[in-house]
Design brief:
By secondary structure, this protein is of the alpha+beta class. It has 7 helices and 22 strands. The strands form 6 sheets. It has a 4-stranded antiparallel beta sheet. The protein has a 4-stranded antiparallel beta sheet with strand order 2-3-4-5, with no helix packed on it. A 4-stranded antiparallel beta sheet has the order 6-7-8-9, with no helix packed on it. The radius of gyration is 35 Å and the shape is extended.
């Protein structure tokens, strides 16, 4: 959604003078995000050489900031939308009907309701490009839609309980958590794989940078990565007290909390940091609820059925909500990133571009071991255990000895030719073999000499200390 939604009236964002344009608050905030911290006061520096270096560094930073602003104006031409209220009004009082009336026709088409009360409640998920929508009814109804074009791609009835659905690395494959196992389907709805290690799964989550599918259920939670399985057993707990806590995983402590009138069943964070909270028949959206403590919700919506699941659409100001009566698509201004990166998620990519993107994603894939709470671990050199180092060294020594033995056998098997068996050449070969054979013994002898030197030094210090001891106390010293 482009620009702000004029639900209630409002004045101009700023005035343009005849010669110089005043910088709007939104532009000031954007420039402040690009700025690399406060500058250094050069006037207080007495050293001329240091003063010149600092001036040069500050000039480089300023030029980089100005270039970044110009590049963003070209590459990021669209600004995010925002729901604005006038005067004493509050944004959470506005209904979807009010928002739809004040947007253009193309945006208004994205707000709709699908009545599917026989096979629900429904779980929903968007593809990474935001073009496709996957739906999974609890009674086995699976469907993939091109939701912006209102076109059904595939539909299948698996005839068993389905608890969740999730797209994989692109829209060609999706996973469904069914009654006992997790199944993988292609875009046409054909089953291609059964993951029997994921049992009685309630929720699914896919990490695209790791190619990792994680699940949680009544037996614990598991993650499958390229055919390998990692399982952790733990007890699952819900916030029965109605509290929503925002945690800083770097410090492992809660930053602030919110209170809901009922037990929260669904949480979702949009690309621009909006927090969606769902419980019962109600959906609340909070703005800037992660960085700071918000005082009131940004939006509030009442559903026709009991909530099951919801998902923000990437690069769109849309929240898809699955409930017992079907599917609801609601407009949430400011939720999606207004500009997409075609190298990351391109909703208009061709078949060849999708294949090339798969190759790039595999090359850039992160290992599961990089999922850690401490970000400082990434980038460190991981030292191998001493036992592993000794084993590798023993293997290297054995390989060297094998090479020497093979070369010796080759030399012995060679046919003696005229001029090829001179005494000087034979002597060089013997010396080479002697050096290789003696190398290990020399190393051991050097180590033993170092140990003997340390022992002699310790004995000398002890003898020197005994010289100054009275004869009556000599019996207490070890000889």
């Amino acid at each position: 959604m482009e620009g702000s939604v004029p639900v209630a009236g409002g004045g101009e964002a700023g005035k343009i003078a005849s010669k110089r344009r005043r910088v709007a608050p939104a532009e000031k905030e954007k420039n402040a995000r690009i700025k690399r911290g406060p500058g250094i006061e050069v006037k207080k520096i007495q050293d001329k050489k240091l003063k010149g270096k600092v001036k040069y560094t500050e000039r480089v930073f300023l030029e980089a900031q100005q270039k970044t602003i110009k590049i963003n104006d070209w590459l990021l031409p669209t600004e995010g939308g925002l729901l604005e209220a006038d005067g004493v009004e509050r944004t959470w009082n506005y209904q979807q009907v009010d928002i739809v009336k004040n947007v253009d026709v193309g945006v208004a088409r994205k707000a709709f309701d699908l009545t599917l009360n026989e096979l629900g409640p429904y779980s929903v998920d968007f593809s990474h490009s935001g073009k496709y929508l996957a739906m999974a009814g609890e009674k086995g109804h699976l469907a993939v839609l091109d939701w912006q074009q209102s076109r059904l791609i595939s539909e299948v009835q698996v005839a068993e309980t389905t608890r969740d659905v999730k797209f994989l690395h692109n829209e060609m494959f999706f996973a469904a958590a069914q009654k006992k196992y997790v199944y993988i389907y292609d875009k046409r709805g054909i089953e291609i794989h059964c993951m029997r290690d994921h049992m009685e799964v309630n929720r699914l989550e896919y990490l695209p940078h790791h190619f990792l599918l994680a699940s949680v259920g009544s037996t614990g939670w598991a993650a499958t990565h390229m055919g390998s399985l990692h399982t952790w057993w733990q007890q699952q707990r819900l916030g029965a007290d109605g509290q929503i806590k925002v945690w800083d995983v770097r410090l492992l402590k809660p930053m602030h909390s919110y209170f809901a009138h009922s037990t929260v069943t669904s949480l979702e964070i949009s690309q621009r940091g909006l927090l969606a909270v769902g419980y019962g028949r109600r959906v609340q959206v909070w703005q800037d609820a992660l960085r700071t403590k918000a005082q009131s919700p940004y939006m509030n919506h009442q559903l026709a059925g009991v909530l099951r699941d919801f998902s923000f659409c990437p690069y769109e100001d849309v929240l898809a909500v699955g409930h017992s009566e079907g599917l609801t698509s609601m407009l949430v201004p400011g939720a999606g990133e207004p500009n997409f990166d075609s190298f990351v998620s391109n909703p208009y990519q061709s078949k060849k571009e999708r294949q090339e993107q798969e190759v790039v994603q595999l090359l850039d894939k992160l290992q599961p071991a990089t999922i850690v709470l401490n970000p400082d671990i990434i980038g460190r050199v991981r030292k191998e255990p001493v036992e592993v180092q000794r084993e590798k060294q023993a293997e290297a020594d054995a390989a060297n000895r094998q090479v020497v033995d093979e070369q010796r056998q080759v030399n012995d098997a060679k046919v003696k030719m005229k001029g090829k068996n001179r005494p000087s050449k034979r002597h060089r070969k013997k010396q080479t073999n002697i050096i290789e054979e003696r190398k290990a013994g020399v190393k051991e002898r050097i180590k033993q000499e170092e140990v003997d030197k340390k022992k002699e030094a310790a004995d000398a210090e002890r003898a020197k200390a005994v010289e100054n001891v009275p004869s009556a106390l000599l019996r207490f010293y070890k000889k």
